[in-house]
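Help!! Second protein's tokens look totally different from the first
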Amino acid sequence: MLRRLVALGISAALLTACGAQADGQPDRTAPPDAVSAPAQTVGPEDAATAFALLKELDEAWKKHDCAKVAFLTTSAESELGTRACEAVRKGRPAPAPLDYGDVDYFLPDRPAEHPWFVVLAHEPKLSYFVFAREEDRWRLAYGPIRLLGAAPELDAQQTTRVVPTDDPEDGVRARLVPQKHLAFLSDRAGLSGVRFAAGDPMRALLAELVKKPGTVRPDRLSSDVQLVPSETRALGLADGGALVFHALKIVYTQKTGARRLAHPVFGADAVRAFTGKPNPTTIHAGEVVVLATKVTADGRLTTVAMTRGLADITA
């Protein structure tokens, strides 16, 4: 059931389509890829059509149609869908059904070169979804991202503010959110200066990364935190600041000096499903962490929503 439709104010930065020669005439030698894509407007029908893709995606997972999963996803969900779908074909459990409803759509109120919008689904569990238009079609970029509590109040009256990346205040803070997560999780000594409040899932994740090597001994385990490439996508909050949607990838490397791993970090069944090998001596595993993070006007970070998923294991 559609609960409400909220229009978003989004800033669209259009690139210059052509240059000028010394005589003032247009430069005909500009390469084709220098021309901006036409700006597009997202309307209610577009949003409903895009959200309906969840049913197609759900069906693709059930049928193990990995090409269709790749076709319908991008960004973090593409990371989670490609190799993971192949592992499902080999016996790994499929993701939970994507049967979501009772939604709020947050739509841009002006054209954008790279349109995107956010869905807040209330059923069956409070979750965010982010859809992005790429290659002339809608794709799921993030979601479901499970909320950890109540949804924060957006800067919404007749429109809701989308934070542009060139905004000198909220835009800068929003753009730095993924980098701050990277610094926090990569600095096991706590010297980065990035802080999360007690009880925030990021603190628990850091503690997990510190302790995890001890859980696989006598195997050796290391981890590296990376950013999942994506545009900055952020909504303005009612009390200032922004809600930023982004993703990280944790790459684990596990080795043993014995004939096989003693304690595979994601379990022996997952290793077999992804690699087809029962007893590898070295594995590389990728886990994607999808986040909605609140950054306040004074720069404080709070995790609002988070979902983790195993994306790949190679041997």
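Here's the second one for comparison:
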Amino acid sequence: MRFRNFSQLAVAALLFVACVSTASAQVVTASGKVTLKQADGTTVPVKDAAVKFYRTDIKQELNAKTDKGGRYVNAGIPLIGTFTIAVSAPGARPSYITDVRISARPENDFVLDPGDGSALTLAQIKTAMAAGPAAAGTPRAGGALSAEDKKKMAEQQAEIARIEAGNAKIVELNTKLPEILKSGNDAFTAKKYDEALTFYDQGIVADPTQAVFHSNKATVLRARGVDRYNVAVKAKDTPGKEAARADFKMAAEENEKAIAAHRENAAKRQQGTATTPTAGGTPQNEELGYMEQRAETYRIALQTSTQVDTEAAIKAIQEYIAAESDPAKKNKSQAGLGDALFIGGRIDEAVAKFREILASNPGNLDAMFGLGIALAAANPPQIAEARDMLQQFVSKSPENYARKPDAVEMVKYLDETLKSSASNKDEDSKKKPASGNRRRP
């Protein structure tokens, strides 16, 4: 028997809790190595070199110091901003780099010449730049350069020019990104979804590598989709449901982009450095948030029969479950994984997943519902057990539980199916001749 399309008997009311990252928690890690030239042409690491990060779009100064290996790390650099990085050390001539976007260039090394150990203030650097500015992002010492340094500088200038040419629009909007992010967040809080999406799209155009804009856009799309879907269900508005599903599909795509951008940026931050806790949470916790949002989007998309890549959904939910340590959140996502397996056509796996959940948590209502519809759709269908499981769900779920009306309808359908099957068996038994009473031809 082909059980009718239960996947379309979706939840009638979906709850949504907004979770938007704010600009204040968005930081990156700056790192690099400082070495000092020796008389024989070799270089050695410099310990306790002072590294200053002068933010030039607004007034801000951050610091770091090198370890015995000459490495420095500052894990609290704002995601948005342009910096001048200045380095000084005893017995060395100071050096600096201007117009650096740490999010695009997290690793910056310095090779110092021997000198008097002086340090440069931002004002002194500006004076030196006015006298003869170097190319953006080019290391520059506080005195004359050797022929070797000039050659290296020319190579660096060519590379930086290439990078800056490709990111011209990003540089132009660099100072506006915090304002764009805040405006989008404010619009979302006020439920001005279209306005919020416009702001987040501006941020994505300015710098598509920033996960926060993709993630926030997905959050807005999901929230708008939930509102649209709830209204459409009450009004029995099919086009309204399709509009909501379009939002869920786009939200899933943006969640995937957010994960990809975050991981790419995290890899850049960690090149050559140990994992360092950052303000607002460690990189691992930050990624867990992105994974949770992606899993939630897929869960809602699948329950509303949205056409998404079910294998991608299964993988995303499994990945989140493996990373999540909160038992309540993990259990909720386990049921979502069962739904994903069911809608993806992996019925036997869905049945096994729901049974696993109920073995450890017999009161999980979503698992009861999921197991009921999965058993009914199995090959061969297990109608009696499916009916009993759905009846158990109906008996235990509160009256306002989203899936209860669907379960009541399914129980009635399965009762009719069982009665019809029993009736057919009775008819067959009546038609079959009794043993020993066969008619002669």
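Reply: Different proteins will give different token patterns, so don't panic. The beta strands are 27-37, 43-45, 50-55, 60-65, 71-78, 83-88, 95-100, 110-112, 140-141.
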